Structures are given as C-alpha cells and as structure tokens.
Amino acid sequence: MKILFLTDNFPPEVNAPATRTFEHCREWVNQGAEVTVITCAPNFPGGRVFEGYRNRYREETIDGIRVIRVRTYIAANKGTIRRSLDYLSFYFAAIRAGRKQECDIILGTSPQFFTALAAKRLSSILDTPWIMEVRDIWPESIKAVKAVSNNPVLSFLEKKERECYTSARGVVCVTRGIYNNLLVKGVPESKLRLFTNGANTERFNPREKDAELLARLNLNGKKVIGYLGTMGMSHKLDFILGSMKKINDPEIHFLLIGEGAEKGNLVRLKDKLQLKNVTILNGVTKQEAPAYISIMDVALVHLRKTDLFLGALPSKMFENAAMGKPLLIGLQGEAEHLIAKYPAGLAFEPENEADFLEKMHILLSDREFYDRCVKGALKLAEDFDRRQIARAMLTCITKWSK
Questions:
Q1: CATH class of this structure's domain 211-383
Q2: Which of the pair, 186 or 149, is modelled with greater confidence?
Q3: Which of 64, 141, 206, 288 could form a disulfide with 29 if both were Cys (CB 3.0 to 4.6 A apart)?
Q4: What are the distances in angstroms from CA 16 to CA 22, 162, 340?
C-alpha cells in the first residue's frame, strides 16, 4: 500500500496538524504501508525557516516516512495576502513534486484548503483516488475569525469546497460536528468516516512535576493554569488575560506557552494590564512539552465564541488529559459533552468571564472533584489512543484505495 500525503505542516513543526499527520503516518509505516509526505520547509507559525533547513527542494526520511519538502513562498501565520500567496505556492509546488510519485491513494488535509485542492488535482493527473481529511470547515472557519471578508473570494472557496467533496473517494472528519456539518451540506454518508484527534500515550503520560522547571519559573507553591499551543486569532487568549486581572489570589498563576499571530499582542496586553500572575513563554518542542505540562495543575483550552467551534475537539485536550491534567475548556458542544462524560474537567462559555472564573474556582478548590477529573482525564486519553485511531483509519484508507 503506497500512500501519498499532502500537508502544509509536518515535524519539526509542533502544531496539531503536524503532530496528527506525523503520528498517523508513522503508525501506517509500522503497519507495513509505504508513506510519502509532501510538505514544505518547517516555518510555522513565525514564517521563519527552522534551523538546519532551507527553503528549497529536499528529501529526507523520518521514522520510516519519506518526506519531500518543496520550495514555497513563506509567510508568518497572520495577515491575508501573504498567507494566501504561501498557500498558493504550496499548491503548485506540491503538484509539481507529486506528479512524479507512484501511489495507490492520495490524501490531502484541510486546512489550509489549497492542500486539499492540490490532492484533488494530483488525483486527476495520476488517475488515482484521493481522500480529503477535514480538520476544520473551510471557508466557514476563516469567516469565524474574520480573516477574509471578500464575498467573491469566499464564494470561490465554497465552490471549490463542494467540488472536493464530490470528487474525493472518501472524506475523513476529525469531529462529529464536522461529520454532521458535511451531511447537511449534502455529502453522502457513505463517503464520510470519523477519526478524531487523540493522544500519544507513550509520550504524554502521568509524572511528577518537573522540579527544575518549577524553580526556574518561580512557580513553587503556585496553582498553575497552563495553556500550551498556538496563540492565534481563533484562540481569543486576550479574554483570558483580561480575566486574570480579576484574580486576587496570589497562589493562582497562568502559564502561557507557544507561538502564533497574536503572541505579540498578548505580551503587550500583559504589560499594559501589569499582570503579575501571568507568565508567557516561547514555544517548546514536542519532546519538551511533557515537562511543561507536568507543572500544570489545570490545563486550559479556549476558542473564541462562534457556532463553528461547537464541533471542535482540539488535540491539546487529549495530550493534557493523557498526563492526568483536569481540563478547563472554553468550548461548548462536542468537547463540553465529552469531558462531562468522563468527567475530565469543566467547560465554561467561551469569552464569559464570570463563568470562566467560577469553573476555575471549582477545579482549584474542590479536591474530591479534582481527583475525579484526574482519573477521568486518564480514562479519556486511554479511549482516544492515537495509535488505535491511526490503525482504524488505515483500514478505511485501504478499502477506499481499491
């Protein structure tokens, strides 16, 4: 089984799309598949090529996965025009590289949407079936964060979206919300399969708090609410900083770790509000992440308030849960119901300060409930083990390739 996978993000980048793709592809290789990934030079989210790489064609092998990196126009993950040029350049470069490959099936992951369009085009060129993986509903997601307001552009993207669903042999949905959304759009149920995000329970597992980190960050004795991930427009972390201004308990501290389009604004807002109970750190590698998660008492996940995110299941939920960290999530809908089921934490209404502070107080003050959430979080991670999800997805891909 030869799989050609097109993705804009791949390790050493550490965002959720890169991690999901890598861990799935690695498991498929372990199961005997030949996997080739077409991606670009690692640069997300700052738009700066990582040390050891250059923006040019390159081939390498990572854990048995053949990786082809193509030269693209590189831009930071902010703004519209330059990012659009970034996306378009990957579309053309991926097609150029992909048309030389032999494969049984092609996968394109969306967003960014032009990756899926490139997979669709290669399917036609190579006369090979393709699968669209939908991690976010485009173009609705860019409407939700107000990244594009040009109606002709949105109409064009919506037309191309419909063409993708029609031509794809199968459509992989990352959440039940996405699955139901596509049913409403008229995508036949026979084409749809649900393979959620999950946790690498080998890397993310319970451990003692990292003493060196606690000392270095001056967090000994603190109740740490931690966020580790991208600081983008959709995460609305300025709301969290504004809420922290209302907290007078000197033991409560917010730890924010990552990179992204909004990081500079968050640093400036922290200084403006003179927040002594907030620490903002640079992003860390996937290898370093468990040590930083270990020092958290509660793991925070937040997305801006929009109906689009009612079906969101961010991958950081599962990684934090795998380390036994109760979740405090600013999400409603699918994620809220999931963590209540176990229970693995509490959900608050996104951008609702009073609800956020109330749920935070419950988690930090009710020890019996907190301990229940620790056990629930570990059970949640066990049920959403990434390797099992990847194996089930490979079985489905194999059927679709025939």
A1: alpha beta
A2: 186
A3: 64
A4: 10, 25, 23
